Every structure is written in structure tokens, then in C-alpha cells.
């Protein structure tokens, strides 16, 4: 399924094609030009938490190499580039003085995108909270909410006239659950009650930030990005079905419903018992503000069983280097289900991609598995559109190989290979395929190919 040849299929002419990155994973320059530390700078220093004991100090040196990297983006012929702002780079302590040098970097970056005909898709929080705020409790502390709103307003004031899109938070589930319940991501806290409170503060800060940025007159499209998976029960047994219902509640409905319906799902609240969040009067109304878009990051489905954990090999599907099942039809199922159950704003697939080992031969990088993964998920997106879902764009994760959080640099998601010894970039076969695919899209719409910059 979904290995159909999509080369001859035309997406809508105004569909947005892009590639995505995030600040901490590529920038490096961890304490350059007045940048303050983030919780990921701190977390990387904890022994044993990063698989290869690496950190983000150098990463892809994007802070220095941004202009070449934007040339690379433009050479692919995409419409848009999704990037994130490092909060502590533009406000070292997360409150108080803003850092002019930090803002100057993002002004150069955004102007550089516009000069190359790329639409900037800006994310405010891709996880790198200023350490100074964590010292006061971070996202668990309600006082972080107004700090985020101030930061968002300052970014919107300086860049809001030039970016196409502003996303408040990338994947609140990851920040809440991986950061505060399992503790495998920064800040490494292990408490379900904390995770639930963190999610609430993320939602609240999202809604208040949108309202405040709009009140300032910022015209960029505004929304949020969620990581979502369809949840399948391993068997038809009542126990597995109940486990799937709980997992769907905690992983999907808990994140979608406050934003779109202004309420938490009652069954999950009941499951949470004493861990339910502290919600003040007015919060839910402040969370549910109109979204110009909903970003969906999709990598895999989830299969849930009440007993022994489901063995991923059971599905008989290809498995990526992350140990994630390749399951493109899950993306169609997810989108169709969201469309059926909710009144949705336009959807963007803000991340989709895969880690595989590349074969490097004679300055060519063969990554057929990644290329196929991307093609099949684009086909799955199209299938959802055929079934009536409005999807306005698709972004590959990621432009570059980069710092893959607790997996370090060993897991490569880039369609461009990074040689970390020399910082050389090399287009992989998947990048060449994506470029050709986009050229054909333009040709079908009668538009001259624009990927002028050859490398
Ligand atoms: C997502 C993150 C992104 C990247 C991919 C593989 O959860 O948003 O930064 O790590 O996974």
C-alpha cells in the first residue's frame, strides 16, 4: 500500500512544500553572542542520558553556515522552510532583557529566506526552554506562561511582518511526557502529575500568546504543532480495546480537545484521578482560540496491548533505525479520523521523515529507504485529501542530519548528509528525488522550474 507512483499526481497548485529543522538540533553556538543556556544544554551534561554522550554545542554549525544552508533549501525547489527560534538566544534568562545579537541572527535568517523566495514557518518553542526559567520550575510553574507570552509578542513584533506562519509549541506531548513523566528528555523529571500540569501550561500559554500576538496586529498564520498517531489495539480482546481507548485519550484526545473544543476529555480526567491538572476559571476559554492551522507531525502508528507490549515485528513492516514501524496508511487513518471527529482548521504535515543508515559512495549518498518512506507518506497524505481532509502543506523532517535528542548524532534524519568532521553537506538521493518530484509538480501546474541554484 502507498508505493503508488505519485510523480504524475498533481497536488493543488498552492500546496506548500517544505523542509524542517529546529534550533537546538542544528545551530550550535551554544553560548555565542549572549545566548543563555537552555534545558537541553544542561540535560546533555547529565551522564548517560545521550546515547553517544554528545551535545548541541557544535551541532551542524548552522549559526555560522546559515546562508549556505538556505542556498541548499532553495536548491531543492521547496516553497517554505520551517525553523525554530532558540528562546535563550533572544532572551538569555527567559524574562527581562532581550538580546539584540540573537535577534539579529534570526532577522538575517528570515530576510535570507525571503531573498531566496522561501516562506518562513517559525516555531517559538521547539523544547529549548531557558535554564533560568527551569530553575523556577519551568513549564510546571504557571509563571512561565506570561514569560512565554512576552517572548512570543517580542518575536511577533520583530519578525511577524515577514514570516508566513508562527507555531507556538512543537509537540506538547513530548515536552510533557518525555520531559516530565518518563524523564528521558530535558528537563528529566519523572512525575505524571508534573507532566499533566506542564501540558496545561503549554496549552494556556499557546492560547494567550495567539490572542496577544493578534492583538498587536500580527497577521501571520498562527497555530500549534502536535505529534499524533493512530492507536490500534493489538487484538479484539476487551482488555486490549480498553488499553487502546486509554492510550488514545492520553496521547491524542488530551492534546486535541482542549485546543479545538475547550475541554479535557472526561474519561481521561477520570483516569488521572489525583493527577488531574489545576485549571483556573477562564483557562479553557483562553486555550480554545481560533487556529489558522494545525500542524501534525507523523512518524508511526502505535499498537497497544493490555498485557505484554506489542512486538513491532508482528506487523511484518519495515522498521527504521529508530526502531519505528513504517506505516504510511496510519497517516491517512489519522487525518481522516481527525476530520471525522473534529472541526479542523487547515492541516499542515509539519514533520515526516525517517532515520536510516546511508550508503556513502563516491560523493553520492544512497538512501532508498528514506526516499521510499517520504514518497509513501506523501501518497498517504494525498489519499487523506481525496477522502475530504484539507491538508495545505507537507514538510520533510529534516533538511539536515542533526542532533537527534537523546539518540545524539548516530540517528540520521536528513535528506542532506552532514559530515560532522568537516561540516560538509551532501545531497542524498532522497533530496534529489524530492527536488525532482517538486519540479514535476510545478511542470504539471505549468510553472517554470524554479530550483535555480545548482550544487
Ligand atoms: C520529532 C521532533 C523533531 C525530531 C523528530 C525525529 O518528535 O519534533 O525534533 O527529533 O521527532
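Sequence proposed for the structure above (455 residues):
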Amino acid at each position: 500500500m502507498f508505493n503508488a507512483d505519485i510523480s504524475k499526481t498533481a497536488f493543488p497548485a498552492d500546496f506548500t512544500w517544505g523542509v524542517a529543522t529546529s534550533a537546538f538540533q542544528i545551530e550550535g553556538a551554544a553560548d555565542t553572542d549572549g545566548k543563555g543556556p537552555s534545558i537541553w544544554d544542561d540535560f546533555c551534561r547529565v551522564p548517560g542520558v545521550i546515547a553517544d554522550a554528545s551535545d548541541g554545542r557544535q551541532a551542524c554549525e548552522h549559526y555560522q553556515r546559515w546562508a549556505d544552508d538556505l542556498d541548499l533549501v532553495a536548491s531543492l525547489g521547496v516553497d517554505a522552510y520551517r525553523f525554530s527560534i532558540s528562546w535563550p538566544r533572544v532572551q538569555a534568562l527567559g524574562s527581562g532583557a532581550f538580546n539584540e545579537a540573537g535577534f539579529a541572527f534570526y532577522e538575517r535568517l528570515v530576510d535570507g529566506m525571503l531573498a531566496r523566495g522561501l516562506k518562513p514557518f517559525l516555531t517559538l518553542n521547539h523544547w529549548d526552554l531557558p535554564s533560568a526559567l527551569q530553575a523556577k520550575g519551568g513549564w510546571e510553574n504557571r509563571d512561565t506562561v506570561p514569560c512565554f507570552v512576552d517572548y512570543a509578542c517580542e518575536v511577533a513584533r520583530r519578525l511577524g511582518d515577514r514570516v508566513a506562519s508562527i507555531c507556538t509549541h512543537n509537540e506538547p506531548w513530548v515536552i510533557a511526557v518525555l520531559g516530565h513523566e518518563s524523564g528521558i528528555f530535558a528537563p528529566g523529571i519523572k512525575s505524571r502529575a508534573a507532566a499533566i500540569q506542564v501540558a496545561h501550561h503549554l496549552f494556556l500559554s499557546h492560547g494567550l500568546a495567539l490572542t496577544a500576538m493578534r492583538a498587536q496586529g500580527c497577521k501571520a498564520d498562527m497555530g500549534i504543532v502536535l505529534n499524533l498517531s493512530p492507536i490500534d489495539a493489538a487484538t479484539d480482546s476487551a482488555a486490549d480495546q480498553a488499553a487502546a481507548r486509554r492510550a488514545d485519550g492520553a496521547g491524542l484526545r488530551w492534546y486535541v480537545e482542549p485546543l479545538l473544543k475547550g475541554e479535557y476529555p472526561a474519561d481521561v480526567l477520570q483516569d488521572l484521578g489525583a493527577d488531574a491538572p489545576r485549571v483556573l476559571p477562564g483557562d479553557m476559554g483562553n486555550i480554545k482560540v481560533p487556529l489558522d492551522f494545525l500542524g501534525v507531525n507523523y512518524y508511526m502508528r502505535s499498537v497497544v496491548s493490555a498485557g505484554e507490549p506489542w512486538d513491532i515485528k508482528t506487523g511484518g513492516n519495515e522498521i527504521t533505525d529508530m526502531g519505528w514501524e513504517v506505516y504510511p496508511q496510519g497517516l491517512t487513518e489519522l487525518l481522516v479520523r481527525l476530520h471525522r471527529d473534529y472541526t479542523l482548521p487547515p492541516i499542515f504535515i509539519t514533520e515526516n521523515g525517517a532515520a536510516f543508515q546511508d550508503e556513502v559512495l563516491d560523493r553520492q549518498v544512497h538512501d532508498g529507504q528514506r526516499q521510499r518512506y517520504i514518497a509513501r507518506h506523501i501518497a498517504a497524505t494525498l489519499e487523506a485529501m481525496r477522502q475530504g481532509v484539507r491538508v495545505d502543506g507537507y514538510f520533510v523532517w529534516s533538511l539536515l542530519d542533526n542532533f537527534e535528542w537523546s539518540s545524539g548524532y548516530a540517528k540520521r534524519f536528513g535528506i542532506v548528509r552532514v559530515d560532522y568532521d568537516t561540516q560538509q553537506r551532501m545531497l542524498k538521493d532522497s533530496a534529489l528525488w524530492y527536488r525532482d518530484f517538486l519540479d514535476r509538480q510545478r511542470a504539471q501546474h505549468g510553472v517554470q522550474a524554479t530550483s535555480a541554484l545548482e550544487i
